[in-house]
């Protein structure tokens, strides 16, 4: 997975190890592409869906999930058609597709959107992982001292622990190529999603259900009218974050876009089913008081060991996911510096270090310092803005329109040469504009949520 919403494919080229354009042969299949999409989508975004449905209610919440699913499926289908540029050459990542189909300033805007989103996701994963680690400690405290004990714990030490882990593993060359990484991520993401679903079903079966309604949280009872409006828009951002994903690499024969389209259909369909189960069952279990993160908000106390396992799965998943999303940022800066100072030993020289029982490890001084600084930056920002729902909503809302809607639609219009003001052109522009408005209001709501929640925090002193 090169970049958020990236798309790359390959064609078999006899028995060689290269595609017919001389690039390294792609290795993905329809099955692996579908699995990677499911793995990438079913991430930390699933944890906030019960809260999102509580803000929107049964009708608007379910409709929003289905609408975002359909929009993602449709625009992903358009994106697969942009795999080949107008000249017929392959585009190996999203930015390359935008450059060859739209060119100019739009290519640069795409890059800013993508890399900003990747940095934002890294910050969001730091927050989520720390909250899950704290939840494990609190779960055991509740089990020992009772549910009224409070067991409040600072998040900061756990964000630092997560940061230290990321600093260490960020030095692994070609981390994204490690065998089994996607498999482990798939197991972890499915595990905590299924545990959440199972715990919700158990709570519903016991009759311990919260108060729900068609419109969600009630004005004057659960929230004020302004809180209702802001929270509903923030919930839209959370749902948008949940539908962020990357496409896989394929080794199919042309037309490659048809294979990727099938993979997208399978991946988004399975994901939507999971999301509906998590959102609907979570809302049914907790009602209008559903916590922002339904596995760390402690609506579930028992069995405590199962809650612990779910949060361990979240942490393991996000430790790897952080690297998957930060690797393109690392590579961008490192390639840029190498192009500027190709003769600098500090930038380009690899120092071989022998590690007993492991082998030779290649260490680069610039890579060591730059990646360490990046992880420290994301950790400090996470400690300053430790608000789970608002941060995830902001990341999702800010990325949704440009990366999921605008560029795929504009590339499709350009590639298909759709005449201006034709019926197809008009309805695509209407969809584009409607999603833009949704993004603007959701971003505003999430920024307002961050400001409001930070009033309850002292800088760098967040407590769960």
From TrEMBL:
Domain of life: Eukaryota
Compositionally biased residues, Polar residues: 1-10
Example of a GO MF term: symporter activity
Classification via InterPro entries: AA_transpt_TM
Keywords of this entry: Amino-acid transport, Auxin signaling pathway, Membrane, Symport, Transmembrane, Transmembrane helix, Transport
Biased composition annotated in UniProt, kind: Basic and acidic residues: 14-23
Chain segments annotated as transmembrane: 33-52, 58-80, 115-136, 178-201, 263-284, 304-325, 368-385, 391-409, 430-451
GO biological process: amino acid transport; auxin-activated signaling pathway
Annotated spans, Disordered: 1-23
General function of this protein: Carrier protein involved in proton-driven auxin influx. Mediates the formation of auxin gradient from developing leaves (site of auxin biosynthesis) to tips by contributing to the loading of auxin in vascular tissues and facilitating acropetal (base to tip) auxin transport within inner tissues of the root apex, and basipetal (tip to base) auxin transport within outer tissues of the root apex. May be involved in lateral roots and nodules formation.
Protein name: Amino acid transporter transmembrane domain-containing protein
Natural source organism: Fagus sylvatica (Beechnut)
Lineage: Eukaryota, Viridiplantae, Streptophyta, Embryophyta, Tracheophyta
């Amino acid at each position: 997975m090169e970049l958020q919403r990236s798309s790359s494919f390959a064609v078999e080229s006899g028995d060689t190890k290269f595609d017919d354009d001389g690039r390294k042969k792609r290795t993905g299949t329809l099955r692996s592409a579908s699995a990677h999409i499911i793995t990438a989508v079913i991430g930390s975004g699933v944890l906030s869906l019960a809260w999102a449905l509580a803000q929107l209610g049964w009708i608007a919440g379910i409709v929003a999930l289905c609408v975002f699913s359909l929009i993602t499926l449709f625009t992903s289908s358009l994106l697969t058609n942009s795999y080949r540029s107008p000249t017929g050459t392959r585009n190996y990542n999203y930015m390359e597709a935008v450059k060859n189909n739209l060119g100019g300033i739009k290519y640069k805007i795409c890059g800013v959107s993508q890399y900003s989103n990747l940095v934002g996701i890294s910050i969001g994963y730091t927050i989520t992982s720390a909250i899950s680690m704290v939840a494990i400690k609190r779960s055991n405290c509740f089990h020992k001292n009772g549910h009224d004990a409070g067991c409040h714990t600072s998040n900061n030490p756990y964000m630092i622990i997560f940061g230290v882990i990321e600093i260490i593993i960020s030095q692994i060359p070609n981390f994204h190529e490690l065998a089994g990484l996607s498999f482990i991520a798939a197991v972890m993401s499915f595990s905590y999603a299924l545990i959440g679903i199972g715990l919700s079903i158990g709570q519903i079966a016991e009759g311990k259900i919260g108060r729900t309604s068609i419109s969600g949280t009630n004005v004057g009872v659960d929230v004020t009218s302004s809180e209702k409006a802001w929270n509903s828009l923030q919930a839209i951002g959370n749902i948008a974050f949940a539908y962020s994903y990357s496409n896989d690499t394929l080794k199919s024969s042309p037309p490659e876009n048809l294979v990727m389209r099938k993979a997208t259909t399978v991946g988004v369909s399975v994901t939507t089913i999971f999301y509906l189960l998590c959102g609907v069952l979570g809302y049914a279990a907790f009602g209008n008081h559903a916590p922002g993160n339904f596995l760390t908000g402690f609506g579930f106390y028992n069995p405590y060991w199962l809650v612990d396992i779910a949060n361990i799965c979240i942490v393991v998943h996000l430790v790897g996911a952080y690297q998957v999303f930060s690797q393109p940022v690392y590579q961008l800066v490192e390639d840029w510096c190498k192009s500027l100072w190709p003769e600098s030993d500090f930038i380009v020289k690899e120092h071989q270090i022998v590690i007993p029982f492991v082998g030779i490890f290649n260490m680069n001084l610039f890579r060591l310092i730059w990646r360490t600084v990046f992880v420290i930056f994301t950790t400090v920002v996470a400690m300053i803005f430790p608000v789970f729902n608002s941060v995830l909503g902001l990341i999702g809302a800010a990325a949704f329109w440009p990366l999921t809607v605008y560029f795929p639609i504009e590339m499709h219009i350009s590639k298909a040469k759709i005449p201006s003001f034709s019926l197809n052109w008009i309805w695509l522009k209407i969809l584009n504009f409607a999603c833009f408005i949704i993004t603007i209001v959701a971003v505003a709501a999430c920024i307002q949520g961050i400001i409001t929640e930070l009033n309850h925090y002292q800088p760098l002193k967040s407590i769960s």
